[in-house]
Amino acid sequence: MSDQTMTGTRNRIAQQVRRNPGIHFNELTRTLDLAPGQVQYHLRKLQRSDDVLEESLYGRTHYYTPDYGTWERGALAVLRRETARDVLVYLMANGPSAPNAVADGVNIARSTLEWHLNHLVEQDLVEKQRDARNHVTLVITHPEETARMLRLVEPSIADRLVDRFTRLVDGLLATEQAKNGDNE
Hints:
Structural class: mainly alpha
CATH architecture of the largest domain: Orthogonal Bundle
Largest sheet: 3 strands, antiparallel
Oligomer: single chain
CATH class of the largest domain: Mainly Alpha
Helix content: 55-70%
CATH superfamily of the largest domain: Winged helix-like DNA-binding domain superfamily/Winged helix DNA-binding domain
Number of domains: 2
Strand content: 5-15%
Distance between the termini: 68 Å
């Protein structure tokens, strides 16, 4: 492979990371239709030259340009998951809300909501506020910055399918649990 071809490939990878901050490795290889080893090689070169940063969060390796800070990188990694995005969009549209209302509004099981909330809270996107009776209200911690991060994230088809499959399984489990509860 010529130096020019290698530089062209590296530039394509860098452009894709610039256009899609927080893109994860598998999505990068899919969208560019490149072999994983080829992408790894060029990413290492881009990291050595400080053109790309790598961060592993929640089972995926994400890539960013260096102009994203720690909070932004964590936010973008979480927002690449459709369900987490849906939770934030719900809270933006409806304001501070009880977890059950959010789960119903997003049409997910409460356990799925809690899994995503753990990451949203950990990345300082959502706060769980408790009242005098210890009831929880979910509140977006940085609404303006979160809205800006949401605009940067375009979910992939693969990401949407995984999230929708999880929702389907949750729905089936909830139906089965309800059926078993009625039979007892």
